[in-house]
UniProtKB/TrEMBL annotation:
Keywords: Amino-acid biosynthesis, Branched-chain amino acid biosynthesis, Transferase. This is Acetolactate synthase small subunit. CDD domains: ACT_AHAS. Belongs to the acetolactate synthase small subunit family. GO terms for cellular component: cytosol. It comes from the Bacteria. It catalyses: 2 pyruvate + H(+) = (2S)-2-acetolactate + CO2.
Length: 165
């Protein structure tokens, strides 16, 4: 089962390395990872996706809770949350293909962010399934490069009381 975890951590050097090292040393693979400063400059939010059963998830949460720089860890998978991935994709595009690719990009609510004589670079954001579907549409044109962020997510509505500090 996939779990989306949101960890509030102290915004200082080495925190991400400490957390990822702890997970790796215990045999957990991180499917997706995103880190960024929060509304409080002293805290960062690490959003990561891991696979495992409830017992494994409980073990992850307990191990993360032992790390001094971790303020709080919440499994938001069981709540109603909004998630997004961001992708930049560079595809081969002849002048004749540009209109067709641009129309598909608009259908996916993406944007063309760079154009050269032979390529288009496109920005797409949304749920993972949307990003994956766009990748599949672009394969026949020739994907030259692709970069994706990790998943970011927030619980809908008022944040859980323990995260409102």
């Amino acid at each position: 089962m996939r779990h989306v975890l949101s960890a509030l951590v102290q915004n200082q050097p080495g925190v991400l390395a400490h957390i990822s090292g702890m997970l790796a040393s215990r045999g957990f693979n991180i499917d997706s990872l995103a880190v960024g400063e929060t509304e409080n400059a002293d805290l960062s939010r690490i959003t990561f996706v891991v696979r495992g059963d409830d017992k494994e998830l409980d073990q992850i949460r307990k191990q993360l809770g032992k790390i001094i720089t971790v303020v709080r860890v919440v499994d938001i998978s069981s709540t109603t949350f909004v998630e997004r991935d961001l992708m930049l994709i560079k595809v081969s595009a002849s002048p004749a293909q540009r209109v067709e690719i641009s129309l598909m990009t608009e259908m996916f609510r993406g944007r063309v962010v760079d154009v050269t004589n032979e390529t288009l670079m496109i920005e797409i954001s949304g749920q993972e399934s949307k990003v994956e579907a766009f990748i599949d549409l672009m394969r026949p044109y020739g994907i030259l490069e692709l970069a994706r962020t990790g998943r970011i997510a927030l619980v809908r509505g008022v944040p859980p009381k323990e995260e409102s500090e």
